[in-house]
Amino acid sequence: MSRGRPGRDDSPDRLYTLTGGRSSSGSDAFDLVTLIVAECDPVPGMQSEHAAILRMSRFPTAVVEIAAELGLPVSIVRILLADLHGTGRISARHPRATTYRLPDLDILEQVLVGLRNL
Amino acid sequence: MTASPSPLRPSALALLVTAAATGTFSMAAVAAAPSSIRVPLGWFAASGSLLLAVAACAVTWWARNARQLRAQVSALTADVAVREAHIARLTADAARETAAHTAERSRLVAGHTAEMDHLSTARAAELDRVTQAHAAELDSLDAAHRAGREQLAEELRLARSGRAAAMAAAANAAGRMQALATGMLADLREMEHKHADEEVLGDLLHLDHRTAQAGRLADSIAVLTGARSGRRWARPIVMESILRGAMGRIGGYQRVRLHSTSEAAVAGHAAEGVMHALAELLDNAANFSPPTAEVHVYVEEVPAGIIITVEDSGLVMSEVQLSRAEQAVTAESLDLAGLSGTRLGLAVVGRLARKHGLTVSFRPSARGGTGALMMLPQELISRAPAEPVPAPPLIAAPEPAPRTVTVPAPRAATVPAPAPAAEAEPVHDSADTTHDSETTGTTPVLGESGLPQRRRGRTLAAAHPEGPDAAAAAARTPAAPGSASQSAARFGSFRQAVRGTSAQQPSTPTHPEGNTQ
Questions:
Q1: Burial of B409 (0-12, 13-18, 19+ CB in 10 A)
Q2: Cβ-based burial of B393 (10 A; exposed 0-12, middle 13-18, buried ≥19)
Q3: Could you identify which of B119, B226, B228, B352 might form a hypothetical disulfide with B277, taking C-beta atoms 3.0 to 4.6 angstroms apart as the criterion?
Q4: Could you tell me if residue B446 is inside a domain?
């Protein structure tokens, strides 16, 4: 494991306390690449993960990116997002809905070149 | 003489007899005498007979009287003699009795004296004997007492050493259980990151919860046996994590409601103890309230420190129970004898409170149950939240290296920015500076290519809670992200792709970095 010494974890928070014991978001509105946009600013007294998500997603941010930044499993992040979504604090956009047409071949070529240059 | 008729009758008899005899003789003499001398003779004979009769009568009278008097005298003499004899006898009797009485008295006195002597000697002897017996008894008792005392001392030594050994064994076992629980929690966290399946995740969370409770029990035993506390956090822990860490260790954590806006953090060395003590208070509150009632936790910052209040709406503790609970958490020395297997909580809280200088008190709650107040002294509190502090410099530091030299200014400007603002909300500040430098709006903007234009991975590790090591490692060894967690690895390649294209078009005016100039 990458966090510090093996057999140790550096956060006293257990994941079930973040979600109140839930392990399922109950909705499949969020997949890995769903873009999340905050609809309001964090308010004091909010769960810190919710506040972090709202700060992070002032601009569209993918679920997987949020998960990586929070260092939480995607399933847990989905539950947090579902909570926020349920109270209208965020909105979710699926990339497919906005980019239905294929991008230009030039762009794809440039991406390919870029990838090769890595 | 009428008093003595007896001489009268013989006198009269003698008178009659004499008179009769003499009369007869006189008559005869008168009758025989010549007529010439008859008359004088008559007279003479008559007077002589009369005189004779009187003389006879008087003689009889006197003789009778004399005899009677003689008899009387002799009777009186005899009487006197009898009386004298009686008196003599009585005198003799009295003398004898006096002698007997005197003898008896002297005998009794002698007997009494002898008895007294005997008794006093017997008493002295008895006293000696009793004194000796008492002394002997005292000696034997003393000896027995001394022996008993020595035996007791020996047993006490044995008990003490046994207790110490048992405590050491329990402490050792508790320490190993703590280590196991800590390792299991870390493993479970790793597995939770690995398995995306919701069902598996649910099971893992369940196990996680159970393990956390087992770990708390091991912690309790470790605290009671005086073992070293289980874990030490390397950095201050923010209050929210303290509360959630405490809450996660009890069975009914879903009934706990947290009300905290505190930004303070608890120093790393005390964080575990505070969490543990709070967990015990929460457990008490949850156990002694109805299964559906909520337990509320309030955090209040006061000049002396931070007060954490745990309020339940369960049983109202009586004055006696309240004072007993207070005594349990403030007792100077822990009395292990008063412990019962199911009521370790308050003793643990007391130990932890003494160790970290916490103040715990109880009062009736406005919610109807009991409120437990725990005050954290100022020494345990660090105001600068540690979690966000190291993050901004750490992502800013590794990033300039692979960046092209065309955009050093904004980075150089953002690097010092978070440092002074670290006291407040560093993440927020650094995010703001980045936002100001970007052209994208609040809605997703499609680039010329038609692809949704994403911001750079500006804060990949900004809020990365994995800590400096992970972020630095990810940045230093970008080609080998396998050491990172799965999602981080996935995102690492994503980010590399973004970085590659930006390196290819450093001077593109639409590039976000370009617009910061």
A1: exposed
A2: middle
A3: B352
A4: no
Which of these three, B170, B194, B228, is where a domain ends? B228
Structure tokens belonging to residue B283: 């457990």
* CATH 3.60.110 is held by the domain A15-117: no
**Could you tell me if B373 and B433 lie in one domain?**
no
DSSP class of B266:
E
Do B35 and B181 fall within a single domain? Answer: yes
- Any chain B CB within 8 A of the CB of A12? yes
Looking at chain B, which residue has its C-alpha nearest residue A13?
Answer: B245
User: How far is residue B286's CA from residue B253's CA, in Å, rounded to a whole number?
Assistant: 8
How many residues can be counted in chain A?
118
Residue B449 included in any domain: no
Residues B300 and B323 in one domain: yes
Is there a contact between B337 and B345 (Cβ–Cβ < 8 Å)? no
Across the interface, whether the CB atoms of A75 and B260 are under 8 A apart is answered: no
A10, A12, A117 ranked by CB distance to B500: nearest: A117
- Give the residue with greater pLDDT, B290 vs B138: B138
**Residue B301 above 80 pLDDT?**
yes
Residue B264 to residue B241: CA distance in whole angstroms? 11
Q: How confident is the model at residue B99 (pLDDT cuts 50, 70, 90)?
A: very high
- B303 with B224, same domain? no
Domain enclosing residue B115, as ranges: 1-228
Q: Mean pLDDT across chain B, nearest whole number?
A: 76
Q: What is the pTM of this model?
A: 0.56
* Per-residue model confidence (pLDDT) at position B36: 82
Contacts of B229 in chain A (CB under 8 A): none
Shared domain for B43 and B102, answered yes or no, is yes
Classified as helix, coil or strand, B273 is: helix
Cβ of B141: how many Cβ atoms within 10 Å? 10
Q: Is the pLDDT of residue B30 over 70?
A: yes
Structural domain tally of chain B? 3
Asked if A117 reaches chain B (Cβ–Cβ under 8 Å), the answer is yes
Q: Write down the pLDDT at residue B485.
A: 53
Mean pLDDT value of segment B385-407: 38
For residue B42, name the pLDDT band (cuts at 50, 70, 90). Answer: confident
Residues B86 and B214 in one domain: yes
Give the Cα separation of B281 and B294 in Å (integer): 14
Least confident of B60-64, B107-111, B502-506: B502-506
Query: Both B209 and B73 in a single domain?
Result: yes
Q: Would the pLDDT of B338 be above 50?
A: yes
C-alpha to C-alpha distance for B208 and A3, rounded to whole angstroms: 18
Evaluate whether residue B448 is within a structural domain: no
Co-location of B273 and B184 in the same domain: no
Domain limit, last residue, from B364, B382, B400: B382
- Rounded to two decimals, the ipTM of the complex is 0.76
CA dist., res. B303 & res. B225, Å (int): 34
Domain presence at residue B447: no
Domain boundaries, chain A: 15-117
